[in-house]
Amino acid sequence: MLEPKHYRCNYCQQDFIPKRRRVQKYCSNSCRSSAYQLRKGNISNLPATNSTIPITEKNDKMTLAGVGNAAVGSMVADGLVKLFTKEKNKPATKGDINLLLQKLGGRYHLVKNLQPNALGALPYYDLIEGIIVYF
């Protein structure tokens, strides 16, 4: 039996035994992907085995100052939206809908472009439910 042939990874420069019949250039998919990213200019660092990049710890602590800044920023953004939104573009409230119902004279409105049903009942649009009903 023949000894398996060792190849050298084109990215991390480590020896490996290929797992496919064709010639492999990289020892793993991560090295292949990293080499592609390096060729395309998306990353500029060297392979992890050759680099000595210090690992820094991420500070995930919540502070009172950070919470306060987030709250103030959110309030300012909401205030600016309310200030610069035109009245016609603001969302309708329940009070606005009730006022509309009072102005229109009720909940049901005759639909003039629909024919009466087989029993002769006329179609009405229900403003509350959003459906057609026949009376």
Overview of the molecule:
The structure is a single chain. The protein is elongated, with a radius of gyration of 35 Å. It contains three helices and five strands. With 135 residues, it is of the alpha+beta class. It starts with 6 loop residues before the first strand and ends with a strand. Helices cover 33% and strands 11% of the residues. It has a three-stranded antiparallel β-sheet, with no helix packed on it.
Q: Report the principal-axis shape.
A: elongated
Q: Separation of termini?
A: 91 Å
What's the main sheet like?
3 strands, antiparallel
Share of helix, binned: 25-40%
Summed up, the helix count is 3
Biggest sheet, spatial arrangement of strands: 3-4-5
Low-confidence stretches: none
What is the N-to-C succession of helices and strands? EEHHHEEE
User: Approximately what portion of the residues adopt beta-strand conformation?
Assistant: 5-15%
The strand count comes to 5
Structural class: alpha+beta
Radius of gyration: 35 Å
Topology summary:
Layout: E1 7-8, E2 15-16, H1 29-40, H2 64-84, H3 94-104, E3 108-110, E4 123-126, E5 131-134
Antiparallel strand pairs: 1-2, 3-4, 4-5
Task: Name the features.
3-stranded antiparallel β-sheet; 11% strand; 135 residues; alpha+beta
